[in-house]
Amino acid sequence: MTDRTIAAVATPFGEGGIGIVRLSGPEAVAIADGLFRRKDGKSLAEQPTYTLRYGKVVDPRSGRKLDEAIAVVMRAPHSYTAEDVVEIQCHGGVMVVREILSLALELGARLAEPGEFTKRAFLNGRLDLAQAEAVIDLIQSQTRLGMEVAVDQLEGSLSRRIKDIQESLYDAAVQIEAAIDFPEDDVPDVELADIEDALAASLAEIESLLATADDGKILREGLKTVITGKPNVGKSSLLNTLLDENRALVTDIPGTTRDTIEEVVNLRGIALRLIDTAGIRESSDLVERLGVERSLELLSEADLVLHVLDRSAALTPEDFQILGLTAESRRIVLINKMDLPPVWNLEDLGEINAPVLEVSLVEEPAKVVAALSETILELIGMGAVTSSAGSRALVTRARHKQALQDAHKALGESLHTLRSGLPLDLIAVDLYNALESLGEVTGETVRENVLDRIFAEFCIGK
Predict the structure, then answer these.
(1) pTM for the whole thing?
(2) Predicted confidence (pLDDT) per residue in 35-68, tens digit
(3) Do 81 and 155 reside in the same domain of the chain?
């Protein structure tokens, strides 16, 4: 347990129906007792765990009443942080919660760092590191599927898979150590065969988890989706159609969009991080040229490109230039303005290694959204994933993926060493490296600087 008691506002900044000041640590109850007066006159020290009482918050120096409030007491180890926790639930005004927090700090608490409540939950064994990271994923989730994946991981779906692999490898390590420590006793072939089976099975399990990494990343972070094309082909109209609102200015004047516009849309449980870019063309306008340069940068970073063409206007070298720029990208080509007389045919584009949708963003916006949704899910291979995302372990973070890749490499080398008939101590070296890498996922072997980076993502009150 940590010696100092921490305090922070646990509700968003601003006006609201309720505000919460949270304290955690050995002096949480005593500090809260110094500023909270129960209506029945009793102290919070007498209050049973998991109960709440009505009273008022009072400045102990002046006796000035700050607010009517409710105090919630949750005693160690059965709290979020596994420490004594007290929450003062007051009215949600900015000044009210600020004054109550200031009192808590004056009475001996320290202002919590970002994510410190969850960090204490991890350090006190309440959560492992993968579960702790799921907390921030849950807070930041923008779709139902993203939320389900975070909840599943918070309940330990990924941690259980990792621990099952570790148990199998620890059993193998015990047998190897026994053979190394007692060389006069020959290790039977059947035991070596069992070890080989255990390593091979663990390797397959890690491969199975790594196979979910791309899907997990998409569900957690969404798809960075760049809308591109030359000016006035309908890029901003497509953005507005997908958002179902007039977010981007739409005119008949080419070059209206000079900078990027970014929004998020929920596409059947997957977040599309839509970026409407400046139309790509040669321009003498400095601001427009800078917008075009930014558009080209974004194309190289995109997870998905929506390339818009205008069927009612003649194809130009710029159209083919943009098609060439996105040739290696995961992309969908939308041929827009099908409600107008066409001036070119699909064959005029040549060979396009991408799905093509012929649409009218003016006349059939609902059909465009439906067709585009199906095409995107099919293109990224997420049709089946969206129906099972919340019911299986997924690797959602780059940190987890890297640790599993390291474990896979070490375990593969250990297995190769065993099959080559080399000494057992060489097998053990790579086996322990694999176990250490797996431990980085759940936090068993994680370094302090890694912890600091992880919890820096959190908000102050969590």
Answers:
(1) 0.81
(2) 999 999 999 999 999 999 999 999 998 999 999 9
(3) no
